[in-house]
Write a structure and sequence with these properties.
By secondary structure, this protein is an alpha+beta fold. It contains 16 helices and twelve strands.
Length: 454
């Protein structure tokens, strides 16, 4: 060994540089924001082809890293080493509108709040929610059948908001629920607004006004719900306790309610719209699901909780709708320390995004991804051998959606009330495109006709 080598001082390891990750910055200030908003799928495909499954970009006024594929989803969502903050990842989009919701909490605090909240989603309460949905559904579906052609997305959005208000608040549809529904709609729209401050006339201003309305409304209601045994989710959260007697403060109840309300109705609105679209295009599957529902021998179409799992094909079809159009197309996180993945070192305090929709539509993961094929979710279709993070519409790991079974339940109830009595028809030769952000929906509202079956 030379004297020079033996006396050299050890070199400090260089701090990771975000710009060592391949990618591009885009325009000054705005980066690639406009390209992403215009066509997120095309932009993502371009970046993947040019830079690979891990790339850097700049959007919504911040540099960030996108990680694609099931391995990336597992690495980020399972987060075995607690490298990623969900709270700080979602904060740029949701903190002003949906602060302190379950998705905007991390680690031990998230675990404690989720544990208390889980009481509202156990079997007993779920059976009560199902009874409410069964009772409210026939009249609404009959109204759709009388309309002739109508835009399904608007109709299912109104229905899901009303059902969420009924189940979550115990409030029947009416003038008050319409104000609540509008406030929630304004908040969701504002979450992806380019202007992030509530300047007069902006969608952010409408969103902030909507949140104030919701907070004021729920705060007034809490005293009347404490200590009562009503079956709605709001009342259950007001009175929920863990085994040590820990419960939610008034502000925590409000924050959780607003977030749950938003998440519950948006998931079902988007996914059932996709399902109805595909059943209208694939009448063979519509017939198969109709026969499955009729085979249950239901009394007045009321779906008992005990028969939920008997709707196997209906569940496959719903899962396929969620694959094709996951309601939340991407999930952001913030690195809380330097993180290495597949040879790339991502610095601390970097926004990282995993793209559910890119993975769900990747032909290397899902052959013929544009094809509607519910049997993908059957054992013989690869459900048991496919990468467990190839399908992530409800997230995964500690932040797996608490209400996923509620979503399945709503979808199955809607199908049991539509399919025995109506044929879903689309205009001849009809196809639509789906808007991706902030939540997936058909650009034209999805015109359908429910034709009564004799």
């Amino acid at each position: 060994m030379s004297a020079e080598a033996s006396t050299a001082k050890p070199q400090k390891s260089a701090s990771p540089n975000l710009f060592d990750i391949p990618g591009e910055t885009g325009l000054p200030i705005f980066g690639n924001t406009f390209k992403i908003l215009k066509d997120p799928m095309a932009f993502g495909q371009y970046m993947k082809e040019k830079y690979g499954d891990v790339y850097r970009t700049n959007s919504f006024f911040r540099h960030n890293v996108t990680m694609l594929g099931p391995d990336a989803s597992e690495f980020v969502l399972m987060d075995k080493n607690k490298n990623f903050s969900s709270e700080m990842g979602w904060a740029p989009y949701l903190e002003r509108l949906f602060p302190r919701g379950l998705m905007l909490m991390d680690f031990d605090e998230h675990k404690a709040h989720r544990h208390i909240m889980a009481a509202a989603f156990k079997t007993g309460p779920m059976k009560g929610y199902l009874e409410s949905l069964n009772a409210a559904m026939p009249e609404r579906i009959a109204e759709w059948g009388k309309q002739g052609s109508f835009e399904f997305y608007a109709a299912i959005k109104e229905l899901s908001l009303d059902m969420a208000t009924l189940v979550f608040l115990g409030l029947e549809p009416g003038p008050e629920s319409k104000k609540i529904n509008q406030a929630l709609t304004d908040m969701v729209n504002a979450s992806m607004g380019i202007v992030r401050v509530p300047l007069p006339g902006t969608i952010m201003a409408r969103g902030v006004k909507g949140r104030k309305f919701m907070v004021d409304y729920l705060m007034r209601e809490i005293p009347a719900r404490r200590g009562t045994n009503k079956s709605d989710i709001f009342t259950r959260l007001c009175n929920a306790q863990d085994e040590d007697g820990n419960s939610f403060t008034d502000q925590e109840v409000v924050d959780h309610m607003i977030f749950l309300w938003m998440a519950a109705h948006d998931t079902i609105t988007s996914s059932v719209t996709t399902l109805v679209y595909e059943l209208g295009r694939h009448t063979d599957w519509q017939t198969r699901l109709r026969e499955e529902v009729k085979g249950l021998g239901l009394n007045n179409d009321s779906l008992p909780y005990e028969k939920m799992n008997d709707l196997v094909l209906t569940e496959y079809a719903f899962k396929e709708a969620l694959r094709m159009n996951p309601p939340v197309p991407a999930m952001p996180r913030l690195t809380v320390r330097d993180v290495e993945f597949k040879g790339h070192v991502i610095p601390k305090d970097t926004i990282v995004g995993i793209s559910n929709i890119a993975t769900h539509r990747d032909p290397e993961v899902w052959p013929e991804p544009e094809k509607f094929d519910p049997m993908r979710f059957s054992p013989e279709g690869g459900a048991k051998t496919r990468h467990r993070f190839a399908w992530t519409p409800f997230g995964g790991g500690a932040h797996m959606c608490l209400g996923l079974h509620f979503a399945y339940m709503q979808a199955k109830v809607i199908m049991t009330h539509i399919l025995p009595h109506y044929e879903i028809q689309l205009p001849d030769g009809y196809e639509t495109d789906f808007q991706i952000m902030p939540l997936i929906k058909p650009v034209d509202g999805l015109p359908v006709t429910l034709k009564a079956i004799d």
